[in-house]
Amino acid sequence: MAAQRCPRHARGPARAPRRPPDRRELDRPRRDGHRRPRFGVAGNERRPSPAALHGPWDFEEVFSALLDLSQELDVDPAEEDLLVHITTGTHVCQICLFLLVESRFLPGRLLQSSPDRRSRAGTYRVIDLDLARYDGLARRFATETQEARSFLKSGIETRNERFNELIEQIEHVAIRSEDPILLTGPTGAGKSRLARKIHELKRSRRQVEGRFVEVNCATIRGDGAMSALFGHRAGAFTGAVKARSGLLKEADGGLLFLDEIGELGVDEQAMLLRAIEEKTFLPLGSDNEVESDFQLLAGTNRDLRQAVRDGRFREDLLARINLWTFELPSLRSRSEDIEPNLEYELERYSSESGRRVTFNREAHRAFTRFATAPSSAWGGNFRDLNAAVRRMCTLAPGGRIDRETVDDEIARLEQSWTSAAAPTSDGGRILESALGQKGVAALDRFERSQLEDVAACCAESRTLSEAGRELFAVSRSRRRVTNDADRLRKYLAKFGLDFQQLQAAAKEIA
I want to staple 65 with a disulfide (CB 3.0 to 4.6 A). Which of 50, 247, 269, 331 is the partner? Predict the structure, then answer.
């Protein structure tokens, strides 16, 4: 660095000083009209100097001294050019200077000089670490970023803008953070597959070396959960003949994916919190702590905040794993992505079975039209789609899915969704009578439960106004102008319903 050179004796025998570039050349205006940068730290007028270095090869000491120097400088990048000379000093000094410039603690550009055998003056280069100035590098980084995002999507060219933005955020966090990541969303939305892809992406960047360890927390209970997660010593409980390391230890140096984390017991949650924060835990029946440095990925289809309110999930654990939370959308809300995912599932089946299967044009058009229709529930999301494709591929005559195969599969899916949405309450039966089975199947579970209660209330009320007063009894007291009948009428109209229709449906099922 022009203002501070690491002690010369640290680099070996003294050498003849090199003559710096001609100052007149530096001060001469450039052809583009901008002034040329000045040598030194914020010019030759000020030369702040860090304390003498006792260990110029000591990274901590050198970096600390140069960081102190950077904080002493009073540089306005808009008015002055700061050049940081990295050719001098030890390699440690050069690395530290590079890091400080790259992180903008030193708001300038790097100056690199080198001797020229033909001239005593030598040569120099000014290096700007703003990669946006280098078109080739910018294109290369953009390509690598795009490849990483495509990798997280299993190479599927998804079209849903919201989902693509979500994957972009996940890619940023996965590469730059080691904090826990929470993946939420309905069953079958792809949480497990995405978690596995995050591990593969980090492993390809050499950010983790350990395994990807996955467990569905809904499948483990009591001592079995403790043993599975944290391990146990021999004799810890009846049947514990041999010691067990546990999944947290197996994930050391890698990623641990706890799917359905909301199903963990409170005791397991407490031990997990300590393992995340301190990287240590006690195996079941042991007095000796075990260390494991893993990154946690968690998945759930539950509302964990509601679980906290209900006393089923620890608030401190939720706070610890809620730093990065990403909600994966349902398949129904990504209708434009059904077609590329359909092609992906076909390729996946062909790869696994070694048997090439395709749609004929009419069959493909019919299934795509059905799959993207608002009435298609896709309750199991991508699990439903995968199962549908596998069934059609298996039954396809001659490896060609025809219209008859598609029609059979559509009927099977509709029957499955109707059974899953079968009403159990009076309101549910009224709703099914008014909307039909397909209409009810097209409703989200949240909307259906609300509508069932509204339908039951309408059936028990003599007028629309009476039903409105009953349904909005609490909120109406906070409104200056109340028109409960109009409010209820507009709500029902959103679903193509009206009060008379629900009353007629109630009489029909009576």
Answer: 50
